[in-house]
Amino acid sequence: MAAERPSESAGLTGIRLDARAIKVLAHPLRSRLLGTLRKGGPATATDLATALGTNSGATSYHLRKLESVGLVADTGEGEGKRRLWRASTESHQYEPSDFAGDEDAETALNWLVRDYMRHFAEQFERWLDVEATWPAQWRDAAGMNDSFVIATSEQAEAMKAELDEVVARYRRVGQGNPNARRLAVYSVIYPLDLDRAPRGKDQP
To answer: What is the CATH number that goes with domain 8-134?
Structure first.
């Protein structure tokens, strides 16, 4: 999802969100519109409104907002006034430090990350609802796990980069195989000792 670090060598496209973009994206409908276009491909405002249970007028307005910060684009292939929209990139990235000191941007980021967390829970529960109907090998391949590590912030960044490289390597590995399915891959890193926040930069 949001904090992906796309690999240009893998032929992927990404955008780094600035303060303006994060403020635009931090909206319930806009977040879902972008996700729907990335997942399902180009669509009209009417199609998106139907999929998301809203009206086409509101959808068109919010698509234009996303377009203003480079997150979606008009394909130019629509008919008449029915514009066909697409996601401009396959992923976006950001670092919390990008918005340090900008209270509005920091508030927007906090909302957006929490929204992604809620979306993950919804989507994973949908899988759990139907998991029993899937073949055993797919049930074994899917799932979730958690681990504990002890690391400095720099070491955690290095681990995150390595995980990103693994995901990038597998991103298109099943392309063209009729047995392949699209898979959502999430990674989350957070400190466990919440009452022991470091005072400054990690020391060697």
So the answer is: 1.10.10.10
